[in-house]
Specification:
CATH superfamily: Aldolase class I
Largest sheet: 6 strands, parallel
Strand content: 15-25%
Organism: Thalassorhabdomicrobium marinisediminis
Subunit structure: Homotrimer.
Pfam family, one: Aldolase
Distance between the termini: 14 Å
EC number: 4.1.2.21
Strand order of the largest sheet: 5-4-3-2-1-9
CATH class: Alpha Beta
Structural class: alpha/beta
CATH architecture: Alpha-Beta Barrel
Pathway: Carbohydrate acid metabolism
Order of helices and strands: EHEHEHEHEEHEHEHEH
CATH topology: TIM Barrel
Number of domains: 1
Amino acid sequence: MTRNIIAILRGIIPTEAEAVSAALIEAGITRIEVPLNSPDALDSIRIMAQAHGAQAQIGAGTVLSVQEVTHVAQAGGRFIVSPNTDPRVIVATKSAGLQSWPGVMTPTECLAALKNGADGLKLFPAALVGPEGLKALRPILPPGTQVYPTGGAGPDNFARWVAASADGFGLCSALYVPGRSNADIATRAKEVVSAYDAAL
């Protein structure tokens, strides 16, 4: 069973990429994002895509330019996440055949992202919007719009976000920080999955 969770591996290095992604996949987290401001991020994406591309979707985060979209596609990435709403990046992402998850915070950004072809919305930083903010946004969004709170959502508040209509989550430090052991990552991933399943 797959979960609507995107694991954000900010700071991961290529030598960790295969083992860390394997631990996440084993726990049931099958969408994995490598932010491009991580060391040699494209190499990590390539390694993960080659090792686990049949079992998981590997993508990139902190994508800020059309050129970066091209590089991610060439590395085998299948989705693009940004902290902002840039129509050029969204259009380039869709033209490359990848999923687009731009960062949004306001109604204007939400609707602009969807108008330009976004597959889903990264509500960021979720801590500033909160579940009540998502409830307020939902009536102006087209039915079926996927919204993933990121940066303020985690196992301790999954239930509140789900009650506010969150469709999934982007998780960073709850799963991975540089230097964390594979065993710790595996344990945390299982705990996150258990909390997610309980919230649903």
